[in-house]
Amino acid sequence: MNWSSVVGRRASGSAGAVNGSLAAGAGDDLETAPPPADEAANVAPVRDTVAAAAAAPLLSLKGVTKRFVTSRHDTTAIDDIDVEIRAGEFVCVVGPSGCGKSTLLNIVAGLDKATSGTITFDGKPLKGSSAERVVVFQDAALYPWLNVRANVEFGLKMKGIRGKERRKVADRYLELVNLTKFDKAFVHELSGGMKQRVQLARALAVEPRMLLMDEPFAALDAQTRDVLQAELQDIWLRTGATILFITHNVREAALLSDRVLVMTPGPGRIKAEINVPLQRPRDPDTHAVVDFAAEIRKQLQHDEYAVSKPEGGYVI
Amino acid sequence: MSSEIIAPSRESSGDRFFARLGGLAEKINPWLIFRVAVFYLGLLLIWEMLYRAEIWSPYLFPSPSEVWEELKQTTENDLLWKSIRATMERLAIGFTLAFVVGMIMGVACGTMKWVDQTLGTLVLGMQSLPSITWLPLAILWFGLSEKAIIFVVLMGSVFAIAISARDGVRNIPKLQRRAAQVFGASRWQTVRYVTLPGMLPSMAQGLKLGWSFSWRSLMAGELLFVSGGLGYLLQIGRDLNNMALVIAVMGVIVAIGLLFDRLIFGPLESWVANRWGLSHG
Ligand SMILES: Nc1ncnc2c1ncn2[C@@H]1O[C@H](COP(=O)(O)OP(=O)(O)OP(=O)(O)O)[C@@H](O)[C@H]1O
Ligand SMILES: [Mg+2]
Hints:
Helices cover 38% and strands 20% of the residues of chain A. By secondary structure, chain A is α/β, with parallel strands linked by helices. By secondary structure, chain B is mostly helical. Adenosine-5'-triphosphate binds at residues 68, 70, 75, 77, 95, 97-103, 266, 310 of chain A.
C-alpha cells in the first residue's frame, strides 16, 4: 500500500473519497473472498476483513519462547507463542503486567532475540531490526536536541533520504497528526499527548510495513488518551497500516482492534483470540464497544486472582 | 484537543539569540550598573587608601594607578600580547588534544562494557591526580620544552573530559538508543546522531571543568619552568621585584578566565538548558 498517496489524497479530497479509494484497493482481492453481504452493514467495513483474510500473513510466529537467564533468575517471559498477523490488520495484545507483552513486541521489532521458535516476516525469516517494523514507545523516546520536525525526519535521515525530500514527507505526516504548527517546538515544550503524536508521525514517516506500539497511551490522562485513540483509529483507516498494539486497557483494545490476543500471566501464552467485528469508525462510548470490552475483561479476569493487578487496574 | 495543547515558543534560533540579547539589555538596568560600579569603585578606593596609609612598603603594595601604568607599558612594548599569545597557543593545542582523546576514551567507555572495566577504572584513578604532578614526568620525557607544557595541559583535562563523556553516554535514555535501532540506524549513525548529541548536557559541564583544570595547570607549568606566556611574565615580575607587574598579570589571567566562561562555556550551558528544557526545572 502506498501510504504517501493515501495521505496525499486525504489532504486534497474529502474523507469519503479516501474511504472509497481504500475500499477499491481492497477490492482487488474480492474474487477470492467475497464479503458476507448481509453482515457488511453492521460489521466491520470491507477494507480490513476482506483484504486481510485473503492475504498471506505478513508476520508469523511459531512456538516462540523467550527465557531471560540472569545470575539470580531464570524467567520464561513468553512460552510457545503462535501468532499470525495479516497485512492491514490491527491486532491488540492484552495481558496482566509482567506477562511478556513487551518481550513479544521487542522480539517482533528485532530488538530482542527469541530463545526458540521461528518468526517469519513477509515470508522471510525475521532477523534484527529494520525500518520495516517501527516501534512507538511508551515514553521518552524522542530526541530532546531535535525540534519536532527533525524528530519526525529522524527515521528518513537514517534511511539516507535527502533533506528536501525529508521535509516534504515530514510535512505530510506532521499534518496527519495535527502538529504542523508545532514543527519548530522542542520536545520539552510538548504535552504528553503531543509527544506521542510526534512519535507516531516519526514512525509513519518511514512507511513501515508494520507498526508496533507498546502501551503508547498508557502514560496519558484519560481525556488525552481518548483524543489519541480516535486519531489513531482515523489514521489507521486512512493509511491501511498494519498495527500490533499492546495495552492494559481493554476498552482501548475493543475500540481499536480487529483482533485481540489475550495472554496468560507469566510465562505468557496466548490464552484467547477474540475477533472484534464491530463497524468502524468506532465510538468508545457505544454499547457495542463497551460490551466488547467487558468480554475481553472476562477473559482476563480469571487471572486477576493469580497475579497482582497492573498499576491502575484494567480500565473498562 | 486544544485543551492539551500548550503554547511552545516557536522562535528560530536567531529569534532566540536576539531575545537573549534583549534579556541582557533588560538585565543591564541603570540600577544594576550603578550597584556594580559602586562596588568596584569602592574596592579601588579601599586599595588606594591602604596604599596611602603606607602600612606596607610601596614596593610590596603598589597603588592602583601604578598597576594600571604597568599594564599599559607591557601592552605598549608588546610583551603582554606576546605572552597572551604564547599561553593561548599552548592552551589551544593542549585542550584540543585533551578534547579529542578524552572524547574517544569516554565514548568507548560509555558504549563498551569491557573498555569501561579496563580503561574506565584507569581513567577514574588518574583523575584524582592533581595535574601539576605530571610536571616532573613531563620534564623527564620532553625536557624543558613546549611539548612538556602541552603534555601537562593535556593531562590536566583529559580525564575530566573522558569521565564526563562516559557519563554523558551512559545517561542517554535507553529508549532513545532503541529508537535509533528500530529505524535501522547503523552503528556509526547511532554514534553520530544519538550518542554525540545526547551526551551534550554532560559534556557542557565536563568541558568547563576540564578547561579550568587545563588553565590552572598551564599557569603552574609556565610559572615553574618554560619561557613565554603569562605565567612566565608573573615569574619575571617576581624576579624584578615588580609587584605592579605581578598584580597586572594576575588581573589579565582573571580576565581571560572570565572571558572564556562568558563567551564559550556560559552560552554552551544555556543552549543545552534551553534545548533540553533543564532551565524550567
Ligand atoms: N532484560 C530482562 N532481563 C530479565 N528479565 C526480563 C527482562 N525483560 C523482561 N524480563 C522479565 O520478563 C517478564 C516479562 O516482561 P515484560 O516486560 O515483557 O512484561 P509486560 O507484559 O510488558 O509487562 P508490563 O505490562 O508491566 O509492561 C517479566 O517477568 C520480566 O521480569
Ligand atoms: Mg511492557
